[in-house]
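Before the break, one more example. Copy the sequence into your notebook; we will annotate it together after we see the structure.
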Amino acid sequence: MTAGDKVPPLRRDEQAVIRALLPAVAAMMRAFDADLNRAERMTHTEYLVLMFLSEAPECTSRLVDLAAQCHKSPSAISRAVGRLEVDGLVRRVQASDDGRGANAILTDVGLARLEQARYTHVLSIRRHLLDHLEGVDLDALARALDSIANPGNSVKAPTRATSGR
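Here is what the structure looks like once it is written out:
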């Protein structure tokens, strides 16, 4: 498609989705953070670090991998791991295969803390997201969001034949 090609404008419903998406995600993330901070004295990022570590083999993960899973910068994850380390929820060790990298290891105390915070997190997800999606096909929504997040997996770029011409 070239700059001279005509592109139909967004429909009103398409425009509404685009305009609502970013504010909704931002508000939802703030709400998750606020609920976890209030009830558990934990940030949403800290919760995610504990959750992903609990799912990792031997409850161990490289910090750069945690950053990718949490969609945060390596420095943000390093700070979160540092806070969790102070509370004895994780240990940070040098990666055995790379002298420059670091691993985070979930401790037994960290696993117990995750289990304690899970209730608050699930209630928060229900209140700030799932309760607003009544009647929505959640499997279809999950597939659509996954295809947006991972464009090479299932969504093809529009071609002239499918661009509405």
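The two ends are 11 Å apart (CA to CA). The beta strands are 60-62, 90-94, 102-106. Try to locate both features in your own notes.
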